[in-house]
Amino acid sequence: MAKSLHVQSLTKKFGKETALDSAELEVRKGEFVSLLGPSGCGKSTLLRIIAGLDDPSGGRVLMADMDVTANSPASRNIGMVFQSYALFPNMSVSKNIQFALKPQKLSLKTRKDKADRILDIVGLTEFANRMPQQLSGGQQQRVALARALVIEPDFLLLDEPLSALDANVRHQLQFEIRRIHEEFGMTTIMVTHDQDEALTMSDRVAVMKKGRIIQMDTPQRIYRHPADAFIASFIGTSNQVKSNGEVKVVRPEHFRVTDVGEGMETKVQSMHFKGAFYRLTVTVLDRTSPSFNHLWTVDLPALLVEEKRIHQGMSLYLSIQETKTMPVMKVAAR
C-alpha cells in the first residue's frame, strides 16, 4: 500500500562537511519523484536517510504522517534498488528474489509463487533458474528490481539504478520501471544525475544543490520555468540572454530563422546532425544586442537546415520567440 513521505528540516553532517542543509521534501502517496542534482549535492545521502540506512544529524522523516526517524530500515517496508544490483552470485534468479521474503516466514511454495509472479511482471520468467553471472546488465537490474518489489513495499527507492547500463538498455528500462510503478502504485523515489532520465520518468523532479532542494515541480515546469540560472543550465541546454534588466533563458528550440536584415545577425560556427534536427553554435554579430559576440546554441529542424542550405561559416538571421523566454534572475545594477 502506497504511503506519503515528508522530510522536515533534514540535516546531515560528516565532520565539518554538511551533506544536507535543512532539506525539505514532500512526496505524495503513489507519486514518482526524482532527486536530481550534480555529484555531491546530497541526493544519495537523503535517500539513505529515508531508507533508514543513515541517521540524520537533525530533522525528521515522516511516513504516512508517522515519525520514523529512529526506526530501523526493516520496519519501514521499503524496497531498494542499488546501482551495484547487489545480487547473490551463488543463488539462482528465483532464489535471489525469494531471499527477500525470508523475514516474512512464508512457506517455500508461497515464496516461489510470489517470485514467479514478479518474474513474469519484469519479463524474466524463462531466466528463473539462471545464475546472475549468466545474465546481461539489464537483466541483472530487472532481478534487483523484482527482489525489491516482491515484498510489496510501501516505498520503492532507486539509487541511480540505470547508470551502469548502456544507452539502449537504459532507455528501455526507463519505460519498464515507469510501467511497473504505475502497475504497483507504490510511492517511488529515484536518485539520478541524468536529467533526461528524471524528465522522462518522474511525476515531479526535486532539483538539489549543496544539500538543499532548490526547486520541486513537474518535469514540464522545471524545464520551462527554472527557478534560477543554475537550474536553467543544469536542466537541458539553455542560452542566457540579458534583456531589460533581467537574464532570460532561451532554449535552443526557441529560435526562428528570419529573412536577411530581420532579427539578429549571427555567424554559424559549427553544426552537428542529431537526426530530426541540427544543433548549431552561432556567434551573435549584432552590435546593438547585449549578446554581441556571445555564443548561442540553436536547434533547427533538419529539413529546414537542408532546404535553406545552412552551412558552417555563413551568416544567419535569427529571432527569439519572446513567448518562449523565461526570466530567471535580475541583473545587478552597476
From TrEMBL:
Catalytic activity: a quaternary ammonium(out) + ATP + H2O = a quaternary ammonium(in) + ADP + phosphate + H(+)
Keywords recorded for this protein, A-Z: ATP-binding, Nucleotide-binding, Transport
Alphabetized PROSITE patterns for the sequence: ABC_TRANSPORTER_1, ABC_TRANSPORTER_2
Taxonomic superkingdom: Bacteria
The keyword Protein biosynthesis is annotated on this UniProt entry: no
GO MF assignments: ABC-type quaternary ammonium compound transporting activity; ATP binding; ATP hydrolysis activity
One Pfam family it belongs to: ABC_tran
Annotated ranges, domain ABC transporter: 5-235
Cellular component terms per the entry's GO annotation: ATP-binding cassette (ABC) transporter complex
EC number: 7.6.2.9
SUPFAM superfamilies: P-loop containing nucleoside triphosphate hydrolases (SSF52540)
Oligomer status and interactors: The complex is composed of two ATP-binding proteins (OpuCA), two transmembrane proteins (OpuCB and OpuCD) and a solute-binding protein (OpuCC).
Name of this protein: Carnitine transport ATP-binding protein OpuCA
Organism: Terribacillus saccharophilus
